[in-house]
Design goal:
Layout lengths: L1 H15 L14 H107 L3 H19 L1
Helix pairs in contact: 1-2, 2-3
Protein name: Methyl-accepting chemotaxis protein 4
Amino acid sequence: MKKRVDELLATVDSVAQGKLLCPVTVKGDDAIGLIGQRLEKVFKQFAESMSSISRSASTLSSVSTSLSNASESIATNAQHNSSQSIQVSQSSEDISSGVRNVAVAIQEMSETANDIAANTRNATKVAQEAADVAQSTNRSRPFKAIVVVLPNQLQKYAQR
């Protein structure tokens, strides 16, 4: 009996040291044999539980790695999208600035055209006054013809 109890204790010690699949060699229908059978069941269930926990830990590690990779990918995509948004914003600002510059140029051209028209009207008026003076003094005919024709030509030019 002591030998059988020592065998059970040796098996329990082996399991305690991590040898979960250590067989229980004590058999029989007496109390020590029944204890051996029950311990063998407990050890098998414990080994199966540890194996299941190990598989679950491996699966969890794999899923964790996948989630980490997905998170890195999302972060990379977010940085890329942010960079593109900044570029689009800068392009929009550049376009807006260009439109403002074109509007200023058009305004300046309009003011220049108005100045040219005003100067042409003034020149026409001066030429007309000169023609009137020439007609009233009735000086030489060739000069009179030039002075009369000049205002008409300037007026035609101003209308273009």
